[in-house]
Amino acid sequence: MWALLSGLGGDGALYEAILADVQRQGAVSNVFILGNVVGPAARSNDLVRRLQHPAAHEPQPRVCLGWWEQQCLTLHGLSRETEPEELLQCYGAVVAKQLWDEISRETIAWIYDLPLAFREYDCLLLHGSTVAVGDRLDPEVNPFFLLDRITRAGVHRLFCGRSGQAFRYDIVGSTVTSKTTTLGHTQETQGDGGAERAIIGVGSGSTYALYNPYTDRLTFRTVDYPPH
């Protein structure tokens, strides 16, 4: 069984609460954190060190790049974007400066080495989509957009964390048709939509997902946080 979470935002106490709940569930073989481990909080560096050095009885969490991690790389000139325009538009200059001041060089080096996604069996686990880290996939998005994103991924289960929502969106009986047009001729290719596909939002913060890749069983849990 897998535990999938996102959106810790540098909150080490939240991670401990989720980890304790995960351990009570029994046979959890992998913990995946689908981005947004850090944020403009002073505690982010401590949480990263905690993830790097789990206790002997704990699984090593596997972390992929999230939106906040991408903003850190942009601020430090380590991404394709030359200016943190999205960060400034969403949060303003004050938060951008906090992110610059609070995230250490050691944490930046850790972020730089994070993978964009994990592929396990016929599942892809990532923060946004294969097109962009900032892609928000949720049940309110146009179905054709969702079908495009999971088709590009080339899997039947796409797990994501960017929207912050906990959901399962099934795509049943889909068929993908492509057209190639040249001078005086149009060629149409119909792909096999085949088996059912699903896009799964793993939640954020205190809500996380448990998934069994052998039975396709999915459950969502919300921890009592802050713990009483």
SSE arrangement:
Layout: E1 2-5, H1 12-23, E2 30-33, H2 44-52, E3 62-63, H3 67-75, H4 85-102, H5 105-112, E4 117-120, E5 123-126, H6 143-153, E6 157-160, E7 166-171, E8 177-182, E9 185-190, E10 197-202, E11 207-212, E12 217-222
Parallel strand pairs: 1-2, 2-3, 5-6, 6-10
Antiparallel strand pairs: 1-11, 4-5, 7-10, 8-9, 11-12
Quick description:
The chain is of the alpha/beta class and about 230 residues long. Helix content is about 30%, strand content about 25%. It has a single domain, classed as Purple Acid Phosphatase, chain A, domain 2.
Structure commentary:
The strands form 3 sheets. Strands 3-2-1-11-12 form a 5-stranded mixed β-sheet, with no helix packed on it. A 5-stranded mixed β-sheet has the order 4-5-6-10-7, covered by helices on one side. The mean pLDDT is 89. The longest helix has 18 residues, at 85-102. The protein is 29% helix and 25% strand. The radius of gyration is 19 Å and the shape is globular. Strand 4 (117-120) and strand 5 form a beta hairpin. The protein has a single domain (2-222), classed as 4-Layer Sandwich (Purple Acid Phosphatase, chain A, domain 2), CATH 3.60.21. The protein is of the alpha/beta class and 228 residues long.
